[in-house]
Specification:
Elements: H1 3-38, H2 45-58, H3 63-84, H4 90-100, E1 111-115, H5 121-129, E2 134-138, H6 141-149, E3 155-162, E4 166-167, H7 169-177, E5 181-189, E6 193-196, E7 207-210, H8 212-217, H9 219-223, E8 229-232, H10 236-246, E9 251-255, H11 257-262, E10 266-269, E11 279-286, E12 297-303, H12 310-321, E13 324-332, E14 340-347, H13 355-365, E15 368-375
Parallel strand pairs: 1-2, 1-3, 7-8, 7-9
Antiparallel strand pairs: 3-4, 3-11, 5-11, 6-9, 6-10, 12-14, 12-15, 13-14
Helix pairs in contact: 1-3, 2-3, 3-12, 3-13, 4-13
Length: 378
């Protein structure tokens, strides 16, 4: 048989498949109406298992491919049903309240909590987001959350990940334990420099101080310094100020160039980070959810059943809508054996067709679910 003949037959099969697919989706809509009237869940795992067992038993050598084909059909049907089911969810109420507030543009000012002090990277992130903001400096990431939760500050700035050193796990754990919302994010290029008192030589240094994330981002340089103690502290700016105040030429700080100017220090080395492509992302958090104009990124966290295919079912919902996932990270749930909390970031807006129903279905089907925010990244 010639290739052209084979392709003609494939075209005929495709036409039949399309008509059968449309008929199946129409029936799925009728199932959704039935479930809606009787307040039944969309997912019927027992029914799906029965169909998959029948399909794979009759597919012969193609059973693996038949299994995946019908699994995809189930997910598409559930996605469509989720668009039609009207049972209320917390996430829908949260989103509708945010949209009803009609937040057009992100504010240029406000009282903002930052961990650290003048010269810290969080301060630089705050200046990018709030050109006329009033910064309240606090000692820890938890204190940033406290300031926002109690109403002392309208907003807070928290670092969430670095392109060289990965996620700031303590911040993700904080977002899990507190009822805070993400309303904006900013990505900053970070350059680390070795700062010392004027006249200090590299061979004079016996101790280097900085934030643990900065130390990790300069690990290659630090590993080459024999006999030098590397000590973490609250943040890079704190390290720079300590070197300035102690007046000891045996200590140095890893911090930004602006810290050298602020605290009267000298840049001994400006090429110490592992990668020139060194970016840190910061979340801007608020007590109440708000969706501002241009929001095109969604952050959420969830837990699912500890069984084969549970995470795949979640990802399949995204694939069915053509949503790009830019981050997936797991974190062990404290006190529970082999249970993980997943953090997801999506390139999407809750106002796009199908996104809100998909979030509704995630809330219904996951063991726990929370939308952190729909926001834009600077």
């Amino acid at each position: 048989m010639e290739l052209s003949e084979i392709r003609t037959k494939i075209d005929n099969v495709d036409d039949q498949l399309l008509q059968l697919f449309l008929e199946r989706m129409d029936l799925a809509e009728k199932v959704a109406a039935y479930k809606n009237e009787r307040n039944l869940p969309i997912m019927n795992r027992e029914r799906e298992r029965e169909i998959l067992a029948k399909v794979t038993a009759g597919a012969g050598e193609q059973e693996r491919y038949a299994y995946h084909l019908f699994s995809t059909l189930f997910e598409l049907a559930r996605t469509r049903q989720a668009e039609l089911i009207s049972s209320p969810t917390h996430v829908e109420a949260q989103i509708r309240a945010s949209l009803a507030a009609k937040q057009e543009t992100f504010p240029q000012t406000g009282q903002v909590a930052c961990q650290g002090m003048e010269g810290a990277n969080s301060q630089a992130a705050c200046d990018r987001l709030f050109p006329r903001g009033h910064i309240i400096y606090v000692k820890s990431f938890g204190a940033v959350a406290d300031a926002v939760e109690t109403g002392l500050c309208q907003f807070g700035i928290l670092p969430v990940e670095n392109s060289s050193n990965g996620s700031v796990r303590s911040v993700y754990e904080l977002l899990h334990s507190r009822r805070l919302c993400v309303v904006r994010s900013v990505r900053l290029c970070i350059r680390h420099e070795l700062l010392v008192l004027p006249g200090t030589r590299l061979e004079d240094i016996t101790e280097i101080y900085s934030h643990e994330q900065a130390l990790g981002q300069c690990s290659k340089f630090l590993s080459k310094l024999g006999g030098v103690r590397v000590l973490p502290c609250d943040n890079t700016a704190t390290a720079a100020r300590m070197v300035s105040e102690r007046g000891d030429r045996h200590i140095a700080a890893i911090a930004s160039h602006s810290c050298a100017d602020l605290y009267g220090l000298e840049v001994l080395r400006d090429d110490i980070q592992d990668s020139d492509n060194n970016y840190t992302r910061f979340f801007c958090i608020a007590k109440e959810p708000a969706i501002y104009a241009g929001a095109n990124r969604i952050s959420l966290m969830l837990t699912c059943d500890n069984r084969p295919g549970a995470l795949y079912e979640i990802l399949a919902k995204l694939a069915a809508l053509g949503i790009n996932m830019t981050k997936l990270e797991s974190c062990p749930v404290a006190g529970r054996n082999f249970e993980f909390l997943f953090f997801l970031e999506l390139e999407a807006s809750v106002q796009e067709p199908g996104v809100l129903p998909m979030l509704n279905e995630l809330e219904r089907s996951c063991r726990s679910f929370r939308l952190l925010g729909n926001y834009a990244e600077v």
